[in-house]
Structure formats: structure tokens, C-alpha cells
Amino acid sequence: MSALRRKLGDEYQVVSTSASGGGLPPPRATPRGKRQRFVDKNGRCNVQHGNLGGETSRYLSDLFTTLVDLKWRWNLFIFILTYTVAWLFMASMWWVIAYMRGDLNKAHDDSYTPCVANVYNFPSAFLFFIETEATIGYGYRYITDKCPEGIILFLFQSILGSIVDAFLIGCMFIKMSQPKKRAETLMFSEHAAISMRDGKLTLMFRVGNLRNSHMVSAQIRCKLLKSRQTPEGEFLPLDQLELDVGFSTGADQLFLVSPLTICHVIDAKSPFYDLSQRSMQTEQFEIVVILEGIVETTGMTCQARTSYTEDEVLWGHRFFPVISLEEGFFKVDYSQFHATFEVPTPPYSVKEQEEMLLMSSPLIAPAVSNSKERNNSVECLDGLDEVGTKLPSKLQKITGREDFPKKLLRMSSTTSEKAYSMGDLPMKLQRISSVPGNSEEKLVSKTTKMMSDPISQSVADLPPKLQKLSGGGSRMEGNLPPKLRKMNSDRFT
């Protein structure tokens, strides 16, 4: 494990302990010279495949693609070598036929008809093959009808020559028409920048097209390469994470006529959620940018790549504008394409900013106001108690339970206090806090029940004879004396 991590890059060395403790600690990186890139600025990937063993035969199974992927010097070498070997082989076949028939000894005999006229040595046989293969036809060397083996060899030569021409010329044509050089006119900014845009911390870089021909269906993608260690202790070298540059909104589909600034919003879903200006000085990561599109002139797919390491990301910078309006057209100034300028940007990560915003949110003010309202309600209830004590004893006894108004007011004050505090919360928290048992219907039913309690209590306080009369329900009013009937009506008003 340690050897694998030491080979990960020349820029740092990871030191780890044994796994006997149940889990490996996070890797500790120490600087070791120049930063090793996974993808160069020109888009070349610094990856070499080694120790293939018996897998090299797979390259021969796809020989055409293997030849196209070779460098130009090897392509030219194979092209020249293949034609030279084929020509020498076919010239040797013609010379063998002339030698076996004895045409070389009777070349100057006018009465003798050879297989190929005027072929009396190997150079003359080689010239005959070149004239036939290239369809030059000087007319001095030609095949006669007295040589059936020569006719068969001539047919074989024509078929073999067509196959070799189709294979090698097709390979050279595909290699010359590859749109790799089209990527040379697609520009990326030398640095990436992090600053505020539309109130959000955003990672930005710039792309441009130097040609007037457009890139059809241009699409851009970003990958974050960063080594990490899982909670199980597994070390993942160069783990690839996706950076959202507008996939959900369609902003990754580019109309690349003028330089564009590509944005990645840093939020809770971003891998840079914990990245701050201070932590970026110790981080080790690489952002790989891939731009794909169809070349308008050839219709072939082109891909341009570049990368940004942590020291190429500028915190608190923004790109200079490069487009200006002229008379009848828009002008792009590519001299300011890579230029940036500093702008005020908080040095904290998005996570730290959200935590500070949560701590400074005005949730204490409603609590203070609620406590004041609670005190006012208590004072009001105390005033009602004082008023109740000043009433005559007979009226106090008629009201039954003295704490009825106090409880009702307390319930109403608690309900309004809860509604006020919930109104200051976000909608999601209000939905979570809304318990089905605290509905208005239950509050009304509780109030009605409490209103019925004093009535039953007041009936219990009546003399036995009057309680017996009250058992009649609705007939009680008709049997009571006028004075008690008046007192009973005053209770409900």
C-alpha cells in the first residue's frame, strides 16, 4: 500500500501506518518538487501502460486503429517499408519466372518468345513490375501470351496492389484528417478563478474559439481528480468526481462563437463545499476540463482538453471582459483573454459561511417578544383574579371554577405565541412543526369541554333539592322558582 502511494506522483510522498489498528489514518502529503500533472495544459495525458504481458496481441487484432494511433514518423516508416517490400517481392517473382523458363539466356534471340519481353536481369524485372503497378506503360516491356504462369502472377499482383494501396493510403488519409489539430484553435484560460457571482461562490474558467467556423453541438465537462481514503481504509489514487457546470440546466451546451466563462456553483453538492482560501494552500487536486464538439467543415468529432491544479486556481479573482461593441459588429480582444483582476471575496468556505449565517440568524428576537407577551398575559390573568376576589361570595360561587378564564386565556396566548414563533421559521420547518394534534378544531372542542365543566360544577354546588330538579334536564327551568330561574339565566349571560 505504501509503495503504491509513493508512486502516485513525484510531487508528494504519502506516509501511512499499518492497518493493525483497525483503520488507516488519512494520507499525509509532503511536497517533493514539481507538481506532477495527470493531464497537461495541451491536453496530453501523462499515462503510460506497462507490464501488459500477453495482452499485446490485442493491438494486432485491431491493426488499422493501431497504425492510426502511431506517431507520424512510425506511420511514414511503415508506409515506405510496406511498399518497398511488396515491390521487391513481386519483382523477385517475375525474375524467378524468367529464370525458370530460361528467358534470361535467350533475351537477345529474336526468334524466341519470352514470358516478358526485354526482361533479362533483376533490375529489368523490377522496372517491369513498377510500370505495371503504377500503370505507366512505356511499351518497351510487356507480357506475352506464351506464359500462363505470368498471367496468373499478373492477376495476383493486381489484387495484392489494390489491397496494399487501400490499407496504407486509407490509413494515411484518416491520420491526416483527424481533428486533433482543430483543438489547437480552441483556447482555455491559463488560470481558473473563484469569486462571488449572483450571490454564490463560483469556480470559473474561460474557453474560446479562434476560428470563424463553429463547433456544432459543443459540450463541456469537468472532472475533479483527487486522491482520498475511504472509511474502510481503502486508498483511491486519483479518484474522479464530477463537477456540475450546468448539466441540469443545459448550460453545458455551448454556443461557442465568442469566449464564454464556464461556471461551477459551489454548494452543498459540490466537492469544493469545504474549500476555503486557507485550505486551498494545502489541498492537492486537479480539475480536468473536456470540450467536445463536431467540426463544422469536416463533420468529425473534436475533443480539446486541459487541466488546472490547485496553484492555478486564483481565489478572489474575476476575468476581464473581452467583448466590445463596434460599428455593426462585436469585437473580441484576445489580448485580455487570460487576464484577471481581484474582487472582494470572503475567504471562508461555503460550509463556514452557512454556519456563520445560521449563528447570526434573528431567531432570538421572536423568543424575547414571546416572553413579553407571556408576561402581559400573566399580568392580565392576575388582574382578572383580583377582580374575581372583589365579587360577592354568591357570584363567585355561581361562576363555579375561578380558574376557567385563566386557563382559557392561557390556551389562547399559547396558541398565538406558537403561531407567531412558527411564522418566523422557513416553510419547511413550519411543515415539520405542524403536528396534526394541534389543529383549530381540537382547540375549539377543548374550549367547549372546559365551558361545560363549570356548569356541571355549579350544579354540584346546588342544594340537594335543586340538584334533584336539575336531573330533569330541560324541564329544570320550568320547575325552578322565579328568583332561581333569574339567577340561572344570569349565569349563561
TrEMBL record:
It is found in: Membrane. The chain crosses the membrane at residues 76-97, 151-174. The keyword Hydrolase does not apply. It catalyses: K(+)(in) = K(+)(out). InterPro entries: Ig_E-set, IRK_C, K_chnl_inward-rec_Kir, K_chnl_inward-rec_Kir3.1, K_chnl_inward-rec_Kir_cyto, Kir_TM. GO terms for molecular function: G-protein activated inward rectifier potassium channel activity. Its main location: membrane. Residues 16-35, 446-493 are annotated as: Disordered. Residues 39-179 form the Potassium channel inwardly rectifying transmembrane domain. Keywords: Ion channel, Ion transport, Membrane, Potassium, Potassium transport, Transmembrane, Transmembrane helix, Transport, Voltage-gated channel. Residues 446-459 have a biased composition (Polar residues). The keyword Transmembrane helix applies. Belongs to the inward rectifier-type potassium channel (TC 1.A.2.1) family. KCNJ3 subfamily. This is G protein-activated inward rectifier potassium channel 1. It comes from Otus sunia.
